[in-house]
């Protein structure tokens, strides 16, 4: 999927992602971090993948080392539907705003700036905006 670099997202700013979920979606991924090897947030909604059904799995990655998985059981996604997700960058965490739900994920890598964003899997990016 698409890759964005040099985003320069700092605490107090937010990234809004809009897109289309594939009709036969198994899972999709959005990564936010310093670059492809330092991911502050690996956001992975799973319809049916890796043994998870209708679960959002979040993690962080430092080079090749993954952190502990964090699971959210609220799953506001529909196969074949559109979705808008906003990532709010704070000093110590990232707030993930989903339709009708939000949660925070800690900034485990202590990133002061989030420069990198990508999407993978069963998701088509329609728009990306930040403020």
Automatic annotation (TrEMBL):
Q: Which domain of life is it from?
A: Eukaryota
Task: Please state what the protein is called.
Answer: Galectin
Keywords, in A-Z order: Lectin
Q: What is the lineage of its organism?
A: Eukaryota, Metazoa, Chordata, Craniata, Vertebrata
* Domain annotation Galectin: ranges: 1-131
Pfam families from the entry?
Answer: Gal-bind_lectin
Gene Ontology MF terms:
lactose binding; laminin binding
Species name for this entry? Answer: Zosterops hypoxanthus
Q: Which GO terms describe its cellular component?
A: extracellular space
Record's InterPro entries? ConA-like_dom_sf, Galectin-like, Galectin_CRD
Record carries keyword Transmembrane helix: no
């Amino acid at each position: 999927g698409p890759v964005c670099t040099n985003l320069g997202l700092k605490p107090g700013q937010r990234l809004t992602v809009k897109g289309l979920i594939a009709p036969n979606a198994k899972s999709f991924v959005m990564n936010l971090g310093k670059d492809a090897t330092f991911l502050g947030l690996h956001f992975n909604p799973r319809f049916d993948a890796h043994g998870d059904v209708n679960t959002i799995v979040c993690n962080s990655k430092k080079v090749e080392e993954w952190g502990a998985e964090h699971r959210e059981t609220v799953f506001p996604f529909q196969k074949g539907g559109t979705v808008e997700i906003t990532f709010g960058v704070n000093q110590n965490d990232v707030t993930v705003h989903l339709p009708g739900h939000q949660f925070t994920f800690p900034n485990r890598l202590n990133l002061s700036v989030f420069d990198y964003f990508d999407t993978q899997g069963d998701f088509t990016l329609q728009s990306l905006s930040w403020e």
